[in-house]
Specification:
Layout (H helix, E strand, L loop, with lengths): L2 H5 L3 H10 L10 E12 L2 E13 L4 E5 L6 H8 L7 E6 L2 E2 L5 H10 L1 E4 L3 H4 L6 H11 L4 H14 L15 H12 L6 E5 L7 H18 L2 E6 L10 E6 L2 E12 L5 E9 L11 H6 L6 E5 L4 E5 L11
Parallel strand pairs: 3-8, 3-9, 6-7, 7-8
Antiparallel strand pairs: 1-2, 1-4, 4-5, 9-10, 10-11, 12-13
The chain binds adenosine-5'-diphosphate and magnesium ion (MG).
Magnesium ion (MG) binds next to α3.
Length: 322
């Protein structure tokens, strides 16, 4: 568009454009991470654990975050749990601005809004307390009366299918049972969000599937929003939405949808989508880049329904030069 044409744009057109502008990033989402950066300094070496991560989670969603070891998963959960403060970016959970909380607000946030399950089964539970006492402990810290604590703890253990473990100490339970009790403990004060960092990392495959099923039950039956982190890409078979993080950034998502065929039978389709970030960046899969030898500069062309990426010296007139 030329300068003259630009200035000739009528007021009505501008107003129309302003109205059509998409709403602010994250409007309506429960968890909003925008361009999150977390840099660790250790012995003069700088590690960028999060490099401009964007993530939106709606109320009631169950999202799995997958990524290789070192991709920034634990850093992300530490930020969301209020344990760690990012170096830059924006992060909000419900009404809480996690960049701007005072120490006192941080304690309130951790007690009321989020529940946490760690990978190490031993870290989740107090070893000399029974399952029921473990679940009741956060309730006591929140000032709930003793009788209510007993009733609620028993109910939570039932929801997680481990009511029969109420009087056992962690050492008297299997790894899977301990993680279910840990989930019940994390839910003690009815948090809006349950965060789980590799909760199945120390379990065998069958028990892992079991614990994931428990997280799904919690999400469906109690309506708790769940973010579960794992290095196991197989998790995408079990949840509706899987977000992949690579090098401290969300790179792609797998969405599973259950549809009904004409004959009434249900089937599930999984679709992998790349994530376009706020700055317009998208990560091209390595196989695609290698197949066409894409390195350094590439040529982009806007087609009617898509954008094409060509090697720098390829012809760009029309689709492929056939
Ligand atoms: N406290 C820390 N000090 C220095 N580097 C850290 C610290 N915590 C994590 N890192 C580094 O940040 C990167 C991301 O770590 P992390 O979030 O633990 O990844 P993941 O949980 O996906 O394995 C890694 O390179 C890790 O070595
Ligand atoms: Mg980790």
């Amino acid at each position: 568009m030329t300068e003259a044409a630009g200035t000739a744009t009528s007021l009505a057109t501008l107003e129309e454009r302003a109205r059509a502008r998409p709403e602010a990033f994250g409007t309506g989402a429960l968890i909003v991470c925008e361009s999150l950066v977390r840099i660790y300094q250790s012995e003069g070496v700088e590690v960028q654990a999060l490099q401009g991560l964007d993530l939106l989670v709606r109320t009631g969603e169950l999202v799995a975050v997958v990524g290789a070891s070192g991709s920034g998963k634990s850093t992300l959960l530490a930020v969301l749990s209020g344990l760690d403060v990012p170096t830059a970016g924006q992060v909000r959970v419900g009404e809480w601005d996690l960049m701007a909380m005072t120490a006192r607000q941080r304690v309130a946030y951790r007690r009321s809004t989020v529940g946490f399950v760690w990978q190490q089964t031993a870290r989740n539970l107090v070893p000399y307390l029974t399952a029921a006492e473990n679940v009741a402990l956060p309730m006591a810290l929140a000032g709930r009366p003793r009788r209510a604590r007993r009733v609620d703890a028993a109910e939570l253990l039932d929801v997680l299918g481990v009511g029969y473990c109420a009087d056992r100490r962690p050492g008297q339970m299997s790894g899977g049972e301990q993680q279910r009790v840990a989930i019940a403990t994390a839910l003690a004060n009815s948090p809006q969000v349950l965060l789980a960092d590799e909760p199945t990392g120390e379990l065998d495959t069958a028990t892992s599937a079991d614990v994931l099923a428990a997280l799904r039950d919690v999400n469906r039956d109690l309506g708790t929003t769940v973010v579960v982190v794992t290095h196991d890409p197989g998790v995408s078979d079990h949840v509706q939405r899987t977000v992949a993080i690579r090098d401290g950034r969300t790179s792609s998502e797998v969405l599973r949808r259950t549809t009904t065929r004409d004959d009434g039978t249900e089937h599930t389709v999984a679709e992998e989508l790349a994530v376009l970030d706020r700055a317009g960046r998208v990560q091209l899969p390595r196989e695609y880049r290698e197949a066409l030898d894409l390195v350094g500069r590439v040529r982009l062309t806007l087609e009617q329904s898509h954008i094409a990426v060509h090697p720098e010296h390829a012809r760009t007139d029309g689709e492929d030069a056939r």
